[in-house]
C-alpha cells in the first residue's frame, strides 16, 4: 500500500491521533494512554500533538520509572519548612500534575509498588499523604501517558496501570513519514470538553460495548467503562449530543481491540467462561435472555427506523472489529508468553549497578551523607527539632543565624534495602514418554518453591521444551495464582530440543537481568537430545548445539543447576553442567518436594 | 468531599458483601481480606462500608476514641485528664474507617513526635498516627500485598497485642490500638505473607462476573454514579438506610444469639477435616455464624449458618498444598459436603443414644 501512496498516513497513526484528542478531551475519565514506541520523532510527534490539543497551561509532569515516594507522592518540603519555621507540605509529581498529565518514562520498568500507588491515586482522584509527620489529602485529577519502550513481549508496563488507561497504542511500526497532521485543533477539543457532560448513550449501546468486550475475552470491567467514556468523547468531538453507533464501533477499535484476548466466538475455538453469551443470535428471533432485563424498550417488533438492539449493534461492532484485530492474534497471544527470539544482552549493567542505591527505603540511621548515602532530610530535621529551643538559648541569635540549628550529630542517612531478587528459571525436558510425570514434578516444584519464596519475594519461571521448540510456559512471577493457571494443561511428548531449551532459558534470564534482577537456571534433563538449534533432527548436531548453548550460559555468568533425571546418570548431562559452569545433581526419581529442596540448597538466595 | 459509591448499589459479589456485613456486626470476627481480579469493586465495597456503620460512643476530645464505658485512663490523653480530674463526656462519633495508603511512612502509621510543635514551640509532644485513629474501628489497606515489609511487621505486632508502643526520639508512649484489619489486593501482584493472611478473620475471593447482564448493569451503574454522584447516591439512600438499620439491629441482637451444640460440633468437625491450624479458625467460624444469624434474625445458630460462613472463615487457613489444583474454596466445599451431613446425623444419633 505504501508503494502506491508513499506519503500516506498510516492507520495506526491516525487512530493514535484520535486517541490523543480523546485524552485531551477527558484525561481523567479515560485515564490516559500507553504509548509503545522507542524514543524518536514519531513518539515526540504524538506527545507534541497531545500537548498542542490540551488547554493552555495544562500541567504536564514527567516521572522516571525509578521515582521515589518523596517525588511521586510528596512529603515535607524542607526548604519551605525551614524558611517558615513550621511544617510545609511539598507536593509530589502527581499532585503537581493535578488537572493535567503525568508522563511515565520507561513505564515498562515501573516497579509494581509504584504502579500500586498510581492506581490508588487514579482511582481515588487524590493523593492521600501520610508521610513524614504530615497528613494531607491532595485532590489530584490526572491522566497518564505511559511511555513503553519495551522491545520484548514480556516488557510491558504493569497491568495495574494498563488496566486503567483507555488507549494502548503501539507506534513501534509507524515510521515518521507515515505520520501527519490529523487536522485536530485545540479549539475543537475545548468545545468537546464543554459538551462532554451532555452526551448520552443508549442502553443498547452500553450493552453492546459490554457484550463485545466479553466476547473478545476481556475480563476487566474497567475496559468497557473506558470504552463507554471514549464513545462519549467521540460524540462530543463530533459536536453531537447522542453517541452514534459509529462512535461505539470506533471506541471498540480504540479501546477494546488492543486488549482482545480472543477472536469473537463466531470465529470458533476460544473462550471458556462466556458460554452463556450466545454470541451470534439471529436478530429477528426472540430477544436473547441477556438483555431483556436492562434494555426492554428495544425489544419486540423489528421496525425499520428504530435503533439497533444491543445484539445487532454488538454484532456490527464485532464485524467492524475483526478488521482491526490482527490476523495472527491467537498466535501472538501464544507466543506473547515467550520471548524466544535469539537472546541479546542489553542494558544489563545499568540495571545491576543501580540496584544497590535504589531499592525500597528501609528507615534511616545516624551517619553522614558520604559515598552515595543520601541524607535523610526529614529524619535529620526530626533529630534536630527537639533541641532547637535549647540550642537557641545557648547560642546568640541574630539576623544571621539560621532558624533551625542543625548539628553534625543530627545527620541521618537513608537506609535502602537492595532489591536484587532471584528469579529461578526452570528449563524442563517435556519430551518423550515419561514427560508427563516429570512435567508434573517440575510443576509441583515450581509451586512449592513459590510457596516458600514469597516471603523473600523471589520469582519463578518455567520453560518447557519438547518436539521442535521451547516455550516460556510461565513468565517470571511470584504469584501462585498465575503460576497455577499457566501450568495447568501443559502438554508433554515428542522429540528433545535441548539446545533450544537452554537458549529459551537464557533469553528469559536476559529479560530478568534487564529488570535488575538475578536469574538462575535449573535445567531438568535426562541428558538426551535429538533436535538441534535449527529445529532439525540429528543426534550429534543436537548434542553439539546443546553444549554450545550451555557454554553461552557460562559466558554470560548465569548461575545454574543441572538436574539429571535419567535412571542411570547420563554423560551428556554432566558435560552440559560442566559447560554451563553449573552444579550437577543426579535425582533419578525426583519428586516435587525433593526437587524444590535440592534447588533451595543448591541455589541459596542472594545477598543473605 | 467526594461522594462514596453506595454499598447497596454494588451488583452481585454477594460473598464479599456478606463478609463486610458480618465484620460490621461483630468486629471481633477479625477483619476481612478481599482478594481477586482487577476492577471488581473491591475497594469500592470497603469504602462504602463506612456508610453502613452505626455511630459509636467515645470520650469527647480523646484522639484515640476511647470507649466511655471502659475504665478511664486507657490512653495517654485520658490518663492525663483523669489525673487532672477533668470531666469525661461521651459523644457519638462515626466508627472510623481509616485508609492506610501505600507509601505511608512508619512515623505516620505508629505516630511520632509532633513536628509542628517541635519546630514552632520547641515542645516534645506525641502526635498519634493512623493506628490511633483506627482504634475501635477499621484499618483499610488497599493493595495489601504491596505493603512494605517493615510496615507489615509493625501491623502484625500491634494487631496481636492490641496496643501500640512507640519508643522513639526520647518519647515513650503506649496506647490501645484495637482495629479490624480490612485488606484488598490482586493475587497476581504477589502473595500475602502467611503471618498476615492469618490475621484476617474472613477472606473472600472475588472474580469478575462473566454473565453479560451483570456486566452491563455494573458498567451502567458506575457510569451513572460518575455522571451524577449526588443523584445516584440519593437513589440508593433508602436501600443503604435499610441496610444500616439491619446492621444496627443485628448488633443489638448479637448478645442474645446463642450457638447450638450441633453448630459447635459441626464447626469443630469441619476444622478437623480440613486440618486448619490452631483454634483461630474455629472461633472465627462460630463468631461469623453468630453474626450472620443476628443479621438474618435467627435466634439459634445452627449448622445452616456454619455452612454459610465456612468458606469465608476457613479458605485462607488451609495448609497450602500446591499439588492440589483445586482452589481452597473448593476444598472447603468438598469438606462441607463430606463432613456436615454426617455431623448432623452423628450428633442426632449421639443425642438419642445418650439419655
TrEMBL record, chain A:
InterPro entries: ChlI/MoxR_AAA_lid, P-loop_NTPase, VWF_A, vWFA_dom_sf. It holds the Pfam family AAA_lid_2. This is Mg-protoporphyrin IX chelatase. It comes from the Bacteria. The lineage of its organism: Bacteria, Pseudomonadati, Pseudomonadota, Alphaproteobacteria, Hyphomicrobiales. Residues 268-278, 287-302 have a biased composition (Acidic residues). PROSITE patterns: VWFA. It comes from Salinarimonas ramus. Gene3D superfamilies: Magnesium chelatase subunit I, C-Terminal domain (1.10.8.80), P-loop containing nucleotide triphosphate hydrolases (3.40.50.300), von Willebrand factor, type A domain (3.40.50.410). Residues 263-306, 344-372 are annotated as: Disordered. Residues 423-603 form the VWFA domain.
Automatic annotation (TrEMBL), chain B:
Pathway: Porphyrin-containing compound metabolism; bacteriochlorophyll biosynthesis. This is Mg-protoporphyrin IX chelatase. Gene3D superfamilies: Magnesium chelatase subunit I, C-Terminal domain (1.10.8.80), P-loop containing nucleotide triphosphate hydrolases (3.40.50.300). Residues 28-210 form the AAA+ ATPase domain. Involved in bacteriochlorophyll biosynthesis; introduces a magnesium ion into protoporphyrin IX to yield Mg-protoporphyrin IX. Pfam families: AAA_lid_2 (PF17863), Mg_chelatase (PF01078). The keyword Ligase applies. GO terms for biological process: bacteriochlorophyll biosynthetic process; photosynthesis. SUPFAM superfamilies: P-loop containing nucleoside triphosphate hydrolases. Its EC number is 6.6.1.1. Keywords: ATP-binding, Bacteriochlorophyll biosynthesis, Chlorophyll biosynthesis, Ligase, Nucleotide-binding, Photosynthesis. One of its GO terms (molecular function) is ATP binding. Belongs to the Mg-chelatase subunits D/I family. InterPro entries: AAA+_ATPase, CHLI-like, ChlI/MoxR_AAA_lid, Mg_chelatase_ATPase-isu, Mg_chelatse_chII-like_cat_dom, P-loop_NTPase. It catalyses: protoporphyrin IX + Mg(2+) + ATP + H2O = Mg-protoporphyrin IX + ADP + phosphate + 3 H(+).
Amino acid at each position: 500500500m505504501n508503494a502506491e501512496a508513499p506519503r500516506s498516513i498510516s492507520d495506526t497513526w491516525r487512530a493514535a491521533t484520535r486517541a490523543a484528542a480523546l485524552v485531551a478531551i477527558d484525561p481523567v475519565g479515560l485515564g490516559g494512554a500507553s504509548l509503545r514506541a522507542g524514543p524518536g520523532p514519531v513518539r515526540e510527534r504524538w506527545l507534541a500533538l497531545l500537548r498542542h490539543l490540551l488547554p493552555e497551561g495544562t500541567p504536564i509532569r514527567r516521572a522516571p520509572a525509578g521515582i521515589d515516594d518523596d517525588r511521586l507522592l510528596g512529603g515535607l518540603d524542607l526548604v519551605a519548612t525551614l524558611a517558615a519555621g513550621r511544617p510545609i507540605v511539598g507536593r509530589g509529581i502527581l499532585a503537581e500534575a493535578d488537572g493535567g498529565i503525568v508522563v511515565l518514562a520507561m513505564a515498562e520498568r515501573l516497579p509494581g509498588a509504584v504502579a500500586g500507588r498510581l492506581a490508588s491515586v487514579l482511582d481515588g482522584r487524590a493523593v492521600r499523604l501520610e508521610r513524614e509527620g504530615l497528613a494531607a489529602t491532595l485532590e489530584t485529577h490526572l491522566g497518564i501517558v505511559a511511555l513503553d519502550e519495551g522491545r520484548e513481549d514480556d516488557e510491558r508496563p504493569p497491568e495495574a496501570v494498563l488496566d486503567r488507561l483507555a488507549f494502548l497504542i503501539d507506534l513501534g511500526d509507524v515510521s515518521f513519514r507515515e505520520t501527519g497532521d490529523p487536522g485536530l485543533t485545540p479549539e475543537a477539543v475545548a468545545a468537546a470538553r464543554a459538551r462532554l457532560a451532555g452526551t448520552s448513550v443508549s442502553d443498547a449501546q452500553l450493552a453492546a460495548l459490554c457484550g463485545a468486550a466479553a466476547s473478545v475475552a476481556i475480563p476487566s470491567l474497567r475496559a468497557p467503562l473506558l470504552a463507554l467514556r471514549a464513545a462519549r468523547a467521540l460524540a462530543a468531538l463530533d459536536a453531537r449530543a447522542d453517541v452514534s453507533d459509529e462512535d461505539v464501533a470506533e471506541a471498540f477499535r480504540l479501546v477494546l481491540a488492543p486488549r482482545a484476548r480472543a477472536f469473537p466466538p463466531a470465529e470458533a475455538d476460544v473462550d471458556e467462561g462466556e458460554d452463556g453469551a450466545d454470541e451470534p443470535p439471529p436478530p429477528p428471533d426472540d430477544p436473547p435472555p441477556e438483555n431483556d432485563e436492562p434494555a426492554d424498550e428495544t425489544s419486540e417488533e423489528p421496525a425499520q427506523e428504530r435503533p439497533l438492539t444491543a445484539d445487532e449493534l454488538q454484532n456490527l461492532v464485532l464485524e467492524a472489529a475483526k478488521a482491526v484485530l490482527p490476523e495472527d492474534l491467537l498466535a501472538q497471544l501464544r507466543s506473547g508468553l515467550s520471548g524466544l527470539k535469539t537472546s541479546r544482552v542489553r542494558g544489563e549493567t545499568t540495571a545491576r549497578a543501580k540496584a544497590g542505591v535504589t531499592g525500597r527505603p528501609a528507615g534511616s540511621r545516624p551517619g553522614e551523607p558520604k559515598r552515595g548515602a543520601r541524607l535523610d532530610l526529614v529524619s535529620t530535621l526530626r533529630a534536630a527539632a527537639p533541641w532547637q529551643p535549647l540550642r537557641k538559648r545557648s547560642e546568640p541569635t541574630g539576623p544571621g543565624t539560621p532558624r533551625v540549628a542543625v548539628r553534625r550529630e543530627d545527620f541521618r542517612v537513608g537506609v535502602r534495602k537492595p532489591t536484587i531478587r532471584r528469579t529461578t528459571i526452570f528449563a524442563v525436558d517435556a519430551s518423550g514418554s515419561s514427560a508427563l510425570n516429570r512435567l508434573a514434578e517440575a510443576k509441583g516444584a515450581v509451586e512449592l518453591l513459590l510457596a516458600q519464596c514469597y516471603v523473600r519475594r523471589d520469582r519463578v519461571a518455567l520453560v518447557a521444551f519438547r518436539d521442535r521448540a521451547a516455550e516460556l510456559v510461565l513468565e517470571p512471577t511470584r504469584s501462585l495464582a498465575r503460576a497455577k493457571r499457566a501450568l495447568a494443561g501443559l502438554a508433554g511428548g515428542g522429540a528433545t530440543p535441548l539446545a533450544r531449551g537452554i537458549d529459551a532459558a537464557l533469553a528469559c534470564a536476559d529479560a530478568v537481568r534487564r529488570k535488575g534482577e538475578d536469574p538462575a537456571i535449573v535445567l531438568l534433563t535426562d541428558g538426551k537430545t535429538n533436535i538441534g538449534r535449527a529445529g532439525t533432527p540429528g543426534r550429534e548436531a543436537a548434542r553439539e548445539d546443546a553444549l554450545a548453548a550451555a557454554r553461552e550460559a557460562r559466558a554470560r555468568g548465569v548461575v545454574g543447576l543441572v538436574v539429571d533425571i535419567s535412571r542411570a546418570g547420563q554423560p551428556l548431562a554432566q558435560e552440559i553442567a560442566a559447560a554451563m559452569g553449573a552444579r550437577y545433581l543426579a535425582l533419578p526419581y525426583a519428586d516435587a518436594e525433593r526437587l524444590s529442596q535440592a534447588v533451595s540448597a543448591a541455589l541459596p538466595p542472594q545477598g543473605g | 468531599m467526594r461522594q462514596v459509591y453506595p454499598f447497596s448499589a454494588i451488583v452481585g459479589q454477594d460473598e464479599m458483601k456478606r463478609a463486610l456485613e458480618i465484620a460490621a456486626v461483630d468486629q471481633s470476627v477479625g477483619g476481612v481480606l478481599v482478594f481477586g481480579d482487577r476492577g471488581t469493586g473491591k475497594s469500592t465495597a470497603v469504602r462504602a462500608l463506612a456508610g453502613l456503620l452505626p455511630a459509636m460512643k467515645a470520650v469527647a476530645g480523646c484522639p484515640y476514641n476511647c470507649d466511655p464505658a471502659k475504665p478511664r485512663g486507657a490512653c495517654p490523653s485520658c490518663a492525663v485528664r483523669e489525673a487532672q480530674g477533668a470531666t469525661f463526656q461521651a459523644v457519638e462519633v462515626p466508627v472510623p474507617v481509616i485508609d492506610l495508603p501505600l507509601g505511608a511512612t512508619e512515623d505516620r502509621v505508629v505516630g511520632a513526635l509532633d513536628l509542628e510543635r517541635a519546630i514552632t514551640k520547641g515542645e516534645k509532644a506525641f502526635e498519634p498516627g493512623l493506628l490511633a485513629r483506627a482504634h475501635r474501628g477499621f484499618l483499610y489497606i488497599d493493595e495489601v500485598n504491596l505493603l512494605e515489609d517493615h510496615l507489615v511487621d509493625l501491623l502484625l505486632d500491634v494487631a496481636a497485642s492490641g496496643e501500640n508502643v512507640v519508643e522513639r526520639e526520647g518519647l515513650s508512649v503506649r496506647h490501645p490500638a484495637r482495629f479490624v484489619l480490612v485488606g484488598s489486593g490482586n493475587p497476581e501482584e504477589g502473595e500475602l505473607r502467611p503471618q498476615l493472611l492469618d490475621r484476617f478473620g474472613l477472606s473472600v475471593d472475588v472474580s469478575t462476573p462473566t454473565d453479560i447482564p451483570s456486566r452491563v448493569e455494573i458498567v451502567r451503574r458506575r457510569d451513572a454514579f460518575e455522571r451524577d454522584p449526588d443523584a445516584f447516591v440519593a437513589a440508593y439512600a433508602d436501600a443503604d438506610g435499610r441496610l444500616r438499620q439491619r446492621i444496627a439491629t443485628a448488633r443489638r441482637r448479637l448478645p442474645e444469639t446463642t450457638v447450638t451444640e450441633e453448630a459447635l460440633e459441626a464447626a469443630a468437625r469441619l476444622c478437623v477435616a480440613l486440618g486448619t491450624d490452631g483454634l483461630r479458625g474455629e472461633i472465627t467460624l462460630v463468631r461469623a455464624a453468630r453474626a450472620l444469624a443476628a443479621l438474618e434474625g435467627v435466634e439459634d445458630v445452627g449448622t445452616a449458618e456454619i455452612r454459610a460462613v465456612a468458606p469465608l472463615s476457613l479458605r485462607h487457613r488451609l495448609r497450602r498444598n500446591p499439588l492440589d489444583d483445586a482452589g481452597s474454596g473448593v476444598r472447603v466445599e468438598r469438606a462441607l459436603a463430606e463432613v456436615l451431613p454426617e455431623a448432623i446425623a452423628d450428633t442426632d444419633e449421639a443425642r438419642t443414644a445418650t439419655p
